[in-house]
Amino acid sequence: MEETASGDNCQNLCEKANEDVISELHDDILCYMLSFLPTKRAVATSILSTRWRNLWKSVTILDIYDGISGYYKNPSTYKERKMNFVNFMDRLFIHRNNPSILKFRLSLAQSYDFTCVNAWMSHLSRWISSSAIMGNVEELIFFINFQVRLPENLYCCQKLVTLKLHGHIRMLNNTAIEVLLSGSLALEELELHLEGRDSRRSVDVCLIVLETFDHRIRLHFCSLRS
Amino acid sequence: MSSSTDSPTLTTETTQLSPQPDTETAKPTKKITLKSSDNQIFEVEESVAMEFATVKSFFEDSPSTDTVPLPNVTAKPLSQVIEFCKEQIKFKANPDEAQKKKYNAEFVTEKSDKDLVDMIPVANYLEIKDLLDVLNQAVADRIENKSVEYVRSFFGIDNDFTAEEEAALRREHAWAYEGVDED
């Protein structure tokens, strides 16, 4: 640091009172700290300083909510906000440099272009595969308001503790579910609130769960007619 | 990094936070002495000190020592961390999740931004996972919807981006900056 005039010294001393003790911490600790924020805000920390620029790329807990209230609330910026969100998602999936994930929560209130969503899901699928090898995915939560097929390897996470599926999510057939659930023996909480074609399957899943698990598991099912 | 010495009450080798003497029970509880980087002495019960993984392993390595030096920890955050751990010991003895949650929430609510931030490296250094989680959550709650400028001053971060770099990053992740509160 260069001091230009003696007057600056006082200024520097005063500023030292609020010393930056956080930026000195190890990357892992900062990433852990960022995992307490919604992913949107974790990414926002990239412009705090160069130290923070790439930290969000290694955060292993992702909590994404499109947060775009309906068209009617603010029609003039709706399109732009939606586009910003899609860009955000594209960049998130491309730039994240840590394939491992611990928790993944995705809430989409709006519907998005089919090819976009498919691309996101296939990225997610790859992360899950590489995380599943290490067996560290603990929580998967989806609230999705439009027809989407989740990656099939979603459920084969040995350490999965929480699985929640809400909305128009397409399930696999019963045999597949049976196989998948029998692989997730750490499961403690299962929530299915499906709408549309697969809504009735919830009941089957419930039975499979009861047969598969001999430990107590928190279940919440809701079957809605389409 | 030498600590500031402008605190009027700061005297070296003072005893702080000495626990209440055991008047009723004859059984003496073992005390452990911790020394902060600004040379303050904290005498804490063994059970509290063992909550600090770093201190615990220090004792396992050299059991005959009577004072554990904590070169990275200043007195103020250390005293707050000890306060937190003392309570956690009580909850360990008498588990009450609701009370514990209430205490943890109150513990962070009454702390200033700076106190919270200063405790994070301490909780990390002493490896107190529960406290680190409580602090991280409290910090996240305080900065979640704040502007970049607010968060910088919250942590005391110096911005070393050029205006152009900052603008480019802001454009790149435009959605991340949507919906922040007015400062």
From TrEMBL, chain A:
Residues 22-60 form the F-box domain. Signal peptide: none annotated. InterPro entries: F-box-like_dom_sf, F-box_AtFBL13-like, F-box_dom, FBL60-like. Transmembrane segments: none annotated. It comes from the Eukaryota. Pfam families: F-box (PF00646). This is F-box domain-containing protein. It comes from Salix suchowensis.
TrEMBL record, chain B:
Residues 1-32 are annotated as: Disordered. InterPro entries: SKP1 (IPR016897), SKP1-like (IPR001232), SKP1-like_dim_sf (IPR036296), SKP1/BTB/POZ_sf (IPR011333), Skp1_comp_dimer (IPR016072), Skp1_comp_POZ (IPR016073). Pathway: Protein modification; protein ubiquitination. GO terms for biological process: jasmonic acid mediated signaling pathway; protein ubiquitination; ubiquitin-dependent protein catabolic process. Residues 30-87 form the SKP1 component POZ domain. Residues 1-21 have a biased composition (Low complexity). It holds the Pfam family Skp1. It is found in: Nucleus. The keyword Transmembrane does not apply. One of its GO terms (cellular component) is nucleus. It comes from the Eukaryota. Keywords: Ligase, Nucleus, Ubl conjugation pathway. Belongs to the SKP1 family. Involved in ubiquitination and subsequent proteasomal degradation of target proteins. Together with CUL1, RBX1 and a F-box protein, it forms a SCF E3 ubiquitin ligase complex. The functional specificity of this complex depends on the type of F-box protein. In the SCF complex, it serves as an adapter that links the F-box protein to CUL1. This is SKP1-like protein. It comes from Salix koriyanagi.
